[in-house]
Amino acid sequence: MTLFGTVNDDATKKKAEAEARKVDGVKRVRNEIEVVSASAKDFVSKNDSQTERSLKKAVANDKALSDASISVEVNNGVARLTGTAPTESVRKAAEKVVKRSDGVKSVRNDIEVTSN
Question: Range of 67's domain?
Fold first, then answer.
């Protein structure tokens, strides 16, 4: 299980992870939650929204990605890619498109390859 999003403090981040570990069937928890202070949250949220719109447009307009089904989510400058791609090279191409965009601190590529 991967936890993704933002919280106000480290204690809340740790609590979310502890709660996730209690869920039946969960074997591993990857805590990708970002700690963002309450005062910075509005600024970060506005920037994330603008970045997310830009990334969605870039992915949709890239011809190399036309055979893929990719969703983009941005939290605290971390872009998360989900969906499917027909090959590993298309999966990597999507990551490259997102990495070179303004407002992206890092990329989490969770795109699944459907065939080789």
Answer: 41-116
